[in-house]
Specification:
heterodimer; A: mainly alpha; MetI-like fold; 13 helices; 2 strands; B: alpha+beta; Rossmann fold; OB fold (Dihydrolipoamide Acetyltransferase, E2P); 2 domains; six-stranded mixed sheet; five-stranded antiparallel sheet; 25% helix; 33% strand; elongated
Chain lengths: 294, 369
């Protein structure tokens, strides 16, 4: 039998959940409803008379090649930064899990980057990757203009991918390490007795048993790269050069708050939201099936 | 196939020393059981042989090669773990064949070998199952099959039967013994279960507190335990042990003023010496009341064992147990007349717990003569 707390006093129950409900309402549902309304109307930048226009905002963004560029760039960014951050985190976690000398120190410092706010990460990487003064500018000594994120689209993309992965790898690392430590030590020992070396054990035993974690992180990382990458882009590239890093979420911000086109920004938000929902759905529906839960 | 030499092995975890210089030599094809209570260092010793623990001091040689610095896979040992340690994401066939896959053998050969092994361990119909779909006994068989497929020189068993229920344990015990006869590989089996040890072993090593207490054939250990610890650990029900004082050669007095005769030829004890006196419950004889030399046992309670019964009571002031064959009923509050055959008495030093007098080997000679 399931034990549940039962409240006879409905008023008390209502009073207890009211603050939380209010927060969700004010900061989640109200803006969502507002965005929905804006997406189907034209909003004058300084308020006043708005007009219901139906699907017109959506028709406009879907026929805009700049918007499709932003979708393309976002997908590239999501794929690259998710792969990089998951691969790095997995490698770090596998190493730390071996409990070699100093693994406690590494466990500690590997998690730090996640504690840093995205704009701060962006700022740090902006300095590191500055083509004229940064740490990486050394390559330009040997091959002038080999690296210049201010001029070359791909350089800028690499910059934001690395910055974002640096931060997300720390987050992924903790999950991977926890999952690795949940694998019974005797399994690793049994594999060692079966003649399997460190890399082989990782491939044949540890990574297959990490699949549920891997799947979870895949969902989180892709979602994160679509909706939470604003801070880094804003500080490092500002969407440039020539819209090469104009991610969907950054475009929403620049159209809405720089261009003061609330309607278009709202329509784009709705599209982004639906896209994330769809991606998550696809992942749960098709990828999860192949995941072995031990 | 290989013999194993263990010389002066020590192991320390932080400030705690868990093995204090263990020496053992294991003959090719022998079935050796390491027996001891939990925390005695028996599993650590086994894992050091396997290569899963580093060796702090001393050396281990397998088949004449010192393996201290070798990886587990280079030592030619296979191990069966207590919790089976099956790969949960692989099928039974994949589990059994994993070692061959790692070794890079062709698929056809692998499948043929898996088939052979599955037949030996009786799992032919389960090859496509995952471990989670198997019962405890079947998992145990997979673990054994996985160990066998590499045709190892040495089999290591780390308490492999302790997760099974009583009936299955007896069955698997027989299977392990049969398997050993068939394969003839050197085997080391770690357990805390003395019945497992007695039934399986060619020789038993009794360990206690990181030291070897005694090494010998099961019969020898049972008949002439070298220390008080071995005496109390081997045998079920456990040996009766009580402090006593030697009155003169051949006679000792326990608390409560009961005088017990022993064989002075077997024990060199001097009058006035404080000793620990032991006798196994099954060696005690029940006699007719009034028989000469009989003692009175005040019965407290009786444990029914089916084929026999175990009578608990007091002899003088000491707790004392006696095995009573079926047929006669005894109840609490009664008094039983018992005789303690002098040849069945064991004496141990009260200080260091060692058997007084003759070493077990010489004792065997005395007995044979």
């Amino acid at each position: 039998m399931q034990r549940r707390a039962a409240f006879d006093n409905l008023w008390l129950a209502g009073a207890l959940i009211a603050p939380q409900l209010l927060l969700v309402l004010v900061f989640f549902y109200w803006p969502t409803v507002q965005a929905l309304y804006w997406a189907f109307s034209t909003q004058p930048p300084f308020g006043g008379a708005n007009q219901w226009v139906g699907w017109q905002n959506f028709e406009q963004i879907f026929s805009d090649s700049v918007y499709w560029n932003s979708v393309r760039v976002s997908i590239i960014f999501a794929i690259l930064s998710t792969s990089l951050s998951i691969a790095t985190a997995l490698l770090m976690a596998l190493m730390v899990d071996r409990q070699l000398a100093g693994h406690r120190v590494y466990r500690f410092i590997y998690f730090w980057p996640y504690a840093i706010a995205a704009p701060a990460v962006g700022l740090a990487f902006r300095f590191i990757f500055a083509p004229d003064a940064g740490f990486v500018s050394a390559v330009n000594q040997f091959a002038p203009n080999l690296w210049n994120p201010a001029l070359k689209g791909w350089d800028a993309m690499i910059l934001i991918v690395i910055a974002n992965s640096w931060k997300m790898a720390a987050y992924n690392f903790i999950f991977f390490l926890a999952a690795l430590q949940a694998i019974p030590r005797t399994l690793i020992e049994a594999a060692a007795m079966d003649g399997s070396g460190v890399l082989r054990r990782a491939r044949d035993v540890q990574i297959p048993l990490l699949q549920p974690t891997l799947f979870f992180l895949l969902v989180i990382n892709i979602t994160e790269s679509f909706v939470d990458s604003f801070g880094i882009v804003d500080i490092t590239t500002g969407g440039g050069p020539a819209r090469a890093t104009d991610l969907m979420v950054f475009k929403i911000y620049s159209d809405g708050f720089k261009g003061l086109d609330y309607s278009m920004a709202a329509a784009q938000s709705i599209v982004l939201m639906l896209l994330v929902v769809a991606l998550t759905f696809i992942q749960f529906r098709y990828v999860e099936r192949r995941v072995h839960y031990a | 196939m290989a013999d194993i030499e263990i010389r002066g092995i020590t192991k320390t975890y932080g400030p705690t020393r868990v093995l204090h210089g263990v020496d053992l030599s294991i003959a090719n094809g022998e079935f050796l059981v390491i027996l001891g209570p939990s925390g005695c260092g028996k599993s650590t010793l086994l894992r050091m042989i396997a290569g899963l623990e580093t060796i702090d001091g001393g050396e281990i040689a397998i088949g004449g090669t010192i393996v201290n610095r070798l990886e587990p896979r280079e030592r030619g040992c296979a191990m069966v773990f207590q919790n089976y340690a099956l790969y949960p994401h692989m099928t039974v066939a994949e589990n059994i064949g994993y070692a061959l896959k790692v070794a890079g053998r062709p698929k056809a050969e692998r499948l043929a070998r898996i088939g052979e092994i599955a037949k030996i361990v009786g799992l032919e119909d389960y090859l496509d199952r995952k471990p989670s779909q198997l019962s405890g006994g079947q998992r145990q068989r997979v673990a054994m099959g996985r160990a066998m497929i590499r045709e190892p020189k040495v089999f290591l068993f780390d308490e492999p039967l302790s997760n099974l229920d009583a009936k299955l344990r007896v069955q698997m015990r027989l299977e392990i013994r049969r398997l050993h006869q068939r394969l003839g590989a050197t085997s080391i089996f770690v357990t805390h279960d003395q019945i497992e040890a007695m039934t399986l072993a060619d020789r038993i090593v009794v360990m206690h507190g990181g030291r070897v207490e005694q090494v010998g054939a099961p019969r020898t250990l049972y008949a002439t335990p070298a220390t008080r610890f071995v005496a109390s650990f081997l045998g079920s029900p456990a040996m009766n042990l009580m402090p006593a004082e030697i009155l003169r050669p051949g006679l000792a007095r326990i608390a409560g003023g009961v005088d017990i005769a022993f064989d002075p030829a077997l024990f060199a004890a001097v009058p006035g010496q404080q000793v620990e006196l032991g006798i196994r419950p099954e060696d005690v004889e029940l006699v007719r009341p009034g028989t000469e030399g009989a003692h009175a046992l005040a019965v407290q309670f009786v444990e029914e064992m089916g084929a026999s019964r175990l009578v608990h009571g007091r002899l003088g002031e000491a707790e004392f147990a006696v095995v009573q064959p079926n047929g006669r009923g005894t109840e609490g509050g009664e008094t039983l007349a018992i005789a303690l055959p002098p040849s069945a008495i064991h004496l141990f030093d009260i200080g260091n717990g060692r058997r007084l007098g003759l070493e077990p080997q010489r004792l065997d000679a005395v007995r044979a003569a």
